[in-house]
Structures are given as C-alpha cells and as structure tokens.
Amino acid sequence: MTITTLSSRELNQDVTRAKRAANSGPVFITDRGKPAHVLLSIEEYQRLTRQRRNIADSLAMPDVADIEFEPPRVTIGTQPADFS
Asked: Which domain holds residue 10?
C-alpha cells in the first residue's frame, strides 16, 4: 500500500493524479500543511466500513438465534443528591 500526500492546491490542479494514487492506497490531502482529508478508492472504503457493524445489524444476521449470549444482570443503585 502506497500512501500519497497532496496539498489542497495540488489536488485542485491534478484531480486525476489523486484518483490514480487512491487506487494504490490512501491519499492524504493537507490544508496549510496539516492533514485535513483522506481520499480512498470505493473498494477500500467499503472494506473499512464493512468491518464496523452496529449491534442492530449484528442481531439481524442469519443464524443469530444459534449464538448463546447471556449478559450479566446489572443493578444500578441510586443515591440521594447532596445539595449542601
């Protein structure tokens, strides 16, 4: 994987170069010398976002009924507020 860094000005002057570079790895786009954005290929973006599944998606998976999951019960106690 190749990491490319371009300034905002370089990106504006040669978008095609940035798109080609994104096929080989992330392209960091800087504003005033500091990283501000990252350009990724759609395949890389989809790969990264597929790994982060929320709990609702996980519970909706097929065969989820076969998974044993019994979290421990938690009792949350209350305390009177001290306004002194």
From this structure: 4-53
pLDDT digit string, tens, across residues 36-82: 999 999 988 888 877 656 677 666 766 666 667 788 888 888 888 88
On whether residue 62 sits in a domain, the answer given is no
Whole-number pLDDT of residue 62 = 67
Tell me: the pLDDT tens digits for 3-46?
A: 999 999 999 999 999 999 999 999 999 999 999 999 999 988 88
The CATH number of the domain holding residue 37 is 3.40.1620.10
How many domains, in total, are found in the chain?
A: 1
Distances (CA, A) of 70 to 19, 29, 77: 47, 46, 22
